Fold this protein.
Amino acid sequence: MSFRSAMLALALLLSWQQLLSSSPSAFAFTFPTEGQATLTHYTLPSDYVASCGCVGRSTHYPTAALNRLAYGSNTSFAPSCGLCFELRLVSTPLANPPPPPDDPDAPWGDGIFYPDSAVASGQTPSVVVKITDLCPGAGGPWCNATMNPDGTLAGNQLGSLVHFDLAWPSVAIPNSFFPGDHDYGVWNVSYAAVSCDRWKGNADQGAVGSDWDQQDAACCPRDPAPSGTDVVCPAYYDTVGDGTALVPNTSNILSKGKSSASSASLATHPLFGPSSTTTTTMMLACGCLFL
């Protein structure tokens, strides 16, 4: 390993230790199984093994990242890993709606606002996603909801405590999923935890479970509670140091030797350029290459 790569690996290790020393209570939050949330989208490379450690093939189907507060851990896997949610578009909060016919002088806007009746009856665009990734607390104004030291909760820029970051564009979701002739950036959505039997990837044996090569450094149950019956992942910080939580075996042998984490090819980091396989594996393990 070159000196430059060694220094990068050391810096990553120190950052990793700093994350693990963070107070777990800062990330302890149980959110309702259904409610309102905000939604953005991000680019997740095909076959990429993200924070939970779900198999790379899961990216061939709809997946999403969850904000740290709702995710349940500040790094790696968490109780939310593997959960499936139906997300339904509601409105574009940063764009005003068109003026109503009876008030032509109202502020003009090209936003989209679906009637409550349309949302409730399932007539708006929706998708069932599997949680495979973490949207970190430092991930801009949308993923930064937090629990204050006094136990009070602070939402994101729009006041939401729950935020989904949809992996899109994606081969799994039509390009036309978001309506309108331009990208509105952020949406209000309704969400509901559902059985992963409704997730398109659930019938694909190669798309479920966690990456074999990461073993107990990953956790991605096929259909965890509350909507399924599989075991729920612990928070990563409860499995290290003085933690006693055990990591359930969710490994999928069909992914053996296929993950980006086990690849001998070099990855390119946007700040540091090409990195060694050792350094790349460390970065993949914390889900920080593309976050």
Remarks:
- The chain has a mean pLDDT of 79.
- The helical segments are 3-20, 68-71, 116-120, 277-285.
- The longest helix spans residues 3-20.
- The domain at 22-264 is CATH 2.40.40.10 (Barwin-like endoglucanases).
